[in-house]
Amino acid sequence: MGDKDGTSADSKAAATNGADLIPLSSPLFLHPSGNPGQLFGGDVLTDLNYNEWISDMKETLSAKNKIAFVNGTLPRPAATDLVRLNAWDRCDAMVKGWLKTAMTKEIRNIVRGVSTSREIWLDLRQRFSPGSATRAYELRRLIGALREDKSSVSAFNTRLRTYWDESQAVSATPRCSCSGCSCDVAGQVRAKLESKRLFDFLLGLDDAFVVIRSQVLSTKPLPSLAEAYQLAAGDEQQQQLTAGRRPAVDSAAFQVKEEKAASSPKPVRCSHSRKLGRTKDMCYRLHGFPTSDLKKVKQGEIRRSPGDAPPRQPTLKMRAAPFLGFRQLSSRT
To answer: What are the respective helix, strand and coil percentages of the chain, to the nearest 5?
Structure first.
């Protein structure tokens, strides 16, 4: 009786502590701090980023030593191997949680009823097939329409490379089929691809790099994409340095102009005739034109308005004669 109790206790302990029997290097080992909601740090899976997402997820699962669960190299153990079976189920449930938390809610609802992480992996591959002609066309359109649009040369080049990498993944690459290859088809494909990417890069640059574009296209043979990028990045740096100096000169000139405007007296304007040079108190049209302008008024050189005052008549200055008395007058006669 005691032996049976001991055997039963040992079996329960083995089942309970089965994780202790899994080596740390095994994909079946699950760290106690593992959390199905904490793994992926990149963008979640959408309808448009499958290739980028699958590449990032492969790296993440490989770092966690769990890539074997999705690529089919670690099948589910037999029911007779209870320890490994339990460990496999726990790890697979963890991987499924990682995959589901790294996708949008709409896609997560589609794969919610899938049993294993491997089945989720295959279902996503089927839905977002990298060989889709529609996606290849869309990528070609995006690359052709992409422009720098006042962003940095580095940011523009990064966006281009993202599209290039995905486009290469969805397009079939020619391979040599002859024995003892002497045609160097791989080198020809690389050269053609490099030339196409160079044109994509030059086409998307802003008009500020028209000199660089002309310089690259006139060079024989054509420089590499890396060389063209270095030229554009160097020219961008020079433009930024030049633009950084210019505002200081412009602001100084603007300040001097403001100071001159502030120190200059404001021109006087008559509120009646709107003429510059005199105030309303001295307005000829209100108080009459001076004698020197009478001739001009008569000849029509100075136009008068209906409300203008009449011209002032010249006044003759007469010297007053001395007062003579009656006797003085009579004596003269």
So the answer is: 60, 0, 40
> Could you count the other beta carbons within 10 Å of the beta carbon of residue 235?
17
Q: Which amino acid is at 28?
A: L
Distance CA 115, CA 112 (A): 9
Which distant-in-sequence residues (6+ apart) come within 8 Å of 118 by Cβ?
Answer: 69, 70, 71, 72
Q: Number of C-alpha atoms within 13 angstroms, CB side, residue 202? A: 23
Distance CA(301)–CA(293), nearest Å, equals: 9
Report d(CA 316, CA 90) in Å as an integer: 126
Helix (H, G, I), strand (E, B) or coil at 213: helix
Eight-state DSSP code of residue 276: B
Cα gap 28→316, rounded to integer Å:
128
| Among candidate residues 10, 18, 14, the one with its CA nearest the CA of residue 87 | 18
Distance CA 137, CA 164 (A): 12
pLDDT digits (tens, 9 = 90+) for 119-174: 999 999 888 865 667 778 888 999 999 999 989 999 999 999 988 988 887 776 66
Q: Are 44 and 158 in contact (CB under 8 A)?
A: no
Chain-centre distance for alpha carbon 217 = 27
- Give the 3-state secondary structure of residue 152: coil
DSSP 149: T
